[in-house]
Amino acid sequence: MRISLLPRRLHHQRQLSTLSFMDSLSTQGPTPPAQEEDLDDLLCSSGPTTLEEREANKVCTLGQPNGYLSGEARIERAWAHWKKLGQPKLVVAPMVDCSELPFRMLCRKYGAQAAYTPMLHSRIFSETEKYRSTEFTTCQEDRPLFVQFCANDPDVLLEAARRVEPFCDYVDINLGCPQRIARRGNYGAFLMEKLPLVKSLVENLAQNLEVPVSCKIRIFPNLQDTINYAKMLEEAGCSLLAVHGRTRDQKDQKKIRADWSMIREVTNAVRIPVLANGNIRHMDDVHSCLAATGAEGVLSADALLENPALFAGFRTPEWVEEGDESCKDSQLDQADLLVEYLKLCEKYPVPWRIVRAHVHKMLGEWFRVQPQVREELNAQSRLTFEFLYGLVDQLRQLGVKIPLYLKDSPTT
Ligand SMILES: Cc1cc2nc3c(=O)[nH]c(=O)nc-3n(C[C@H](O)[C@H](O)[C@H](O)COP(=O)(O)O)c2cc1C
């Protein structure tokens, strides 16, 4: 069986259905008149469309199940795999509508050593070709890659996972989403109330996939519950655990600091590699977090959206102390990064809504200086690359300049 992961030109129809946590994607029917389309759901460019172009990108065939290893052998396999990947320390966290291929490639250029896809809905993914081809795109350089799914049915999850395993290094299960949509859909952090189901999700993948299974969790308020949870996941066959050091109820990430000490306890309690998540805003945080948690690596989400060059040591002015002579203007800024991102979007098309979200994140501070430029962007129902490159030029002509800084130290 062959699957194509390369995006095609979309002919979207507005679809009012329950699928819509990532905005609905229509699969049927004729192309509607332009005014009825959600223009932000259209792909930003057409990308490779002919068979030859797709084959040049090496469409792969699906792998076969590997059988199940138990106990010690599984732990050894987990570490061997992790080492084979080069033990990536700096990882782009999964972000719905934000950790898509062009953004991952930009972060990789600036120091990220691995990346997660956005969370994909396992049922929709296994049922809908259009969803697969627009929401999951990748390329040969996009490795190591963790493909994340939300799920509540082991067989549906396995079916979805089988489609992506040739293209990734881990199939990840989202056990941490705290949003209302996850409560309604019965997935993410709401499975913390249904641990037998979680166990069967992990076991079914571990027993049947070639590629290892990873899980991303939130902590319980109680340390022992968190440790028991992590050990259960390890026992079920999880090969890598990312721990977000906040509970399901701690949704305000700006206000509530992640609990690195609880992550340390998990690292001590399990034998598989652990990644720490929460409060990584610049490279000093990376070093402190690794020291505090003993984790193999860190994930960063929110701060990377503003500054995709974070892992290469660049920092926004917010993280430069007044009078700190060791921080110098790097001559790179967020507008430069946005231009690089847009070029990647021309190469690897994604829906415009995703591009729009990144423009707001990367240029948020710039728009605060010149709010009318943001208004012009908001008034634009149909985006084009020409418009967006023009927007960057306009900000520069208006004299906005917010540098990214580099610290004078070997560890940046
Ligand atoms: C825009 C956005 C989308 C997110 N989507 C996902 C997701 O798809 N899957 C997931 O496990 N976590 C998701 N998260 C949570 C992050 O992966 C991460 O756990 C959380 O933001 C804490 O990391 P931070 O302190 O570096 O932001 C998302 C976060 C943001 C900001």
Descriptors for this entry?
single chain; 412 residues; alpha/beta; TIM Barrel; 2 domains; eight-stranded parallel barrel; 17 helices; 12 strands; 40% helix; 13% strand; binds flavin mononucleotide
Question: Your description of this structure?
Answer:
This protein has helices at residues 51-56, 71-84, 101-109, 122-127, 129-135, 154-164, 180-185, 195-208, 223-236, 260-269, 283-293, 302-306, 334-347, 352-362, 364-369, 371-379, 385-397, and strands at 90-92, 114-116, 120-121, 145-150, 170-175, 213-218, 238-244, 274-277, 297-300, 314-315, 327-333, 403-407. It has 412 residues and is of the alpha/beta class. It has 2 domains: 71-305, TIM Barrel (Alpha-Beta Barrel), CATH 3.20.20; 315-407, no CATH class. The strands form 2 sheets. The chain has an 8-stranded parallel barrel, surrounded by 7 helices. Helix 9 links the parallel strand 6 and strand 7 (238-244). Residues 93-96, 98, 118-119, 148, 174, 176-177, 216, 244, 253, 277-280, 300-303 line the site of flavin mononucleotide.
The residue ranges in which pLDDT falls below 50 over 5 or more consecutive positions are 1-35, 49-55, 57-65
Shape from CA axes? globular
- The averaged pLDDT comes out at 87
Order of helices and strands: HHEHEEHHEHEHHEHEHEHEHEEHHHHHE
**CATH topology assignment of the largest domain:** TIM Barrel
Distance between the termini: 47 Å
Largest sheet: 8 strands, parallel, barrel
Ions and ligands: flavin mononucleotide
Arrangement of strands in the largest sheet: 1-2-4-5-6-7-8-9
- Assign the CATH architecture of the largest domain: Alpha-Beta Barrel
- Say how many strands there are: 12
Gyration radius from CA atoms, angstroms: 21 Å
CATH superfamily of the largest domain: Aldolase class I
Quick one: CATH class of the largest domain? Alpha Beta
**Count, helices:** 17
Strand content: 5-15%
